[in-house]
Amino acid sequence: MRRPWRSLRVWLGRLGIPIGGKSMAEVRDQAERISRCHMTFEVTNGKKISVTSDRLVTSALLREGDDGARLVERVFLSQPFFDQLRRYPVQIDEAAVRQLANNSFALDVYCWLAYRLHALPNPTEVSWQALHTQFGSAYGRLRDFRTRFIPTLTLATAVYPEAKVEVNDNKGVILHPSPAPAPTAGRPRRLG
How confident is the model over 27-48, as pLDDT tens digits? Predict the structure, then answer.
C-alpha cells in the first residue's frame, strides 16, 4: 500500500511538476487562493432553487518565505467540505494528472469528468451555457468558449479513455455513466 504524501513538495515531485521557480510560485499562489476560497452551489429542480454556500478552509497557517513569498503550511478544512470529500471521493489517476500538468483547463475538465461520470445513473446532457458558466469565465462569448472546450475535452478523455462523452455542437455534451478512472500500473497514458 502506498503511503500518502506528507508534503506538497513530495506530491509535486510525484506529479512531475518542477519544484522551484515559476511552477512553485504558481502552486503557492493557488494554495493561498484555495485557502481563501468561498464557494456557492445552486441546484435548480423545477421551480425550486437550493443554494448552499461555504468556505473550503476554516483556517490556514501561512508563513513568509525567505524570498518574501507566502507559504501555506497548514490548512484546516471546513467540516461540511471535509464530510463531502469523504462521502463523495474522486478517484484520479496520477499518471493522467502528470500528462495534463501543463494544461490547467484540461486538468479541470478531467477532474470534473472523474467526479461526475461514475456517479451518473443515466446519460445526462450538459448545455454549452452550463459548461460556460462552470469553466468559461475567461471567455466573454459562448462560441469562443465552445471552440476552446472541445479540444480540451479531447485531451481530458485521452487520459481517461473509460469516459463516455458525446459532443453535440448545438446543445453541449452528453455524459454517459462510465467507470471511474483507475490508476495505471506505472505507465502513463500517452496523448495523441
Answer: 777 777 777 777 777 777 788 8
